[in-house]
Design a protein that fits this description.
Two copies of one chain form a homodimer. Chain A is mostly helical. Chain A has six helices and two strands; from the N terminus they run H-H-H-E-E-H-H-H. Chain A is 57% helix and 6% strand. The relative contact order of chain A is 0.14. The complex binds FE2/S2 (inorganic) cluster (2 copies). The structure holds a DNA duplex.
Chain lengths: 144, 144
DNA sequence: GATAGCGTAACTATAATTGTTGCGGAAAGG
DNA sequence: CCTTTCCGCAACAATTATAGTTACGCTATC
């Protein structure tokens, strides 16, 4: 597959939307994401189902955040985009009854579960407002 | 893509090889992995490049571990199979100069780097001998 | 009613592992 | 030698999830 860049893209665009304040059309967002409006509608549509954004059709329509940047965490966005755990252990199912395969899978699953807990914890305490703040610092401060 | 099950598969088969002690042919290993010999050669070939197994052609040939199970860690196998970090942050490259995109990517990269460190640490202290031991306990003890 | 939006269906493109077939070469055994 | 049993490798199809694209319908505003 192509690498799943939806989370990164959504963070990017949500922060822009928050900073701009008003409504943004799929067309303008597509330019930000270097893609086309249909992809934007598809992905933002998932966020709408989770109450993070809302859309309005017709002239003057577009997309808008339902909460301010400091009330949306990275975890909120991640959870909306991905069902199930953020990190999945790559297990094998060649011989489900084999104790060795089960023990191997178990090791991988436990290690991934622990790693995922850390990842989720970090996502949970990072708000879009903080990303916006970082962006401003980078823009005015040292490049990179 | 199809989920990358190579690490799980290699752990499984390496433990079996260690427990059986002698040489195993690609044919027999393919049966363990519910696949065919070519896939086995392809994947074990990578491990051979990293000195974990060795192969011999001709009659009576096959694959053999170069070290005992307690001298191979999950990390050794993972490193052999994957170049670069075990966990990669799914970043976007739509507008590389945009500070917001950079800040978003940066958050994801840092979170993943921290999670990867934990994952790697767990891999590093887990030997194949421990997996073998777990498997024996599961086989004789309670199912699951 | 013309225009600017979103919503959605139906494709195609892309990328990485997996599965498969076929052939060549090497080692052992007779 | 010649057959059998191995690995090595090239080449190609299958799979699967996201991304990209085209097309059409619907709604709200002007
Ligand atoms: S996409 Fe234009 S600045 Fe982030
Ligand atoms: S594959 Fe036969 S027991 Fe693990």
């Amino acid at each position: 597959m192509t690498t799943d860049g939806r989370l990164a893209r959504m963070l990017h665009v949500l922060v822009h939307m928050g900073l701009l304040g008003g409504r943004e059309t799929s067309e303008r967002i597509a330019l930000m994401l270097n893609t086309n409006p249909v992809v934007v509608r598809r992905t933002l549509g998932v966020l709408r189902e989770h109450g993070i954004v809302e859309s309005e059709g017709g002239r003057g329509g577009g997309w808008k955040l339902t909460r301010s940047l400091d009330q949306v965490t990275v975890l909120d966005v991640q959870r909306a985009l991905t069902k199930g755990p953020a990190l999945t252990a790559p297990v094998s199912r060649d011989h489900p009854t084999c104790p060795v395969e089960r023990a191997s899978n178990s090791v991988l699953e436990k290690a991934h579960a622990a790693a995922e807990a850390h990842l989720i914890a970090k996502y949970a305490v990072t708000t879009l407002a903080q990303i916006a703040k970082d962006a401003k610092h980078k823009a005015s401060g040292t490049t990179q």
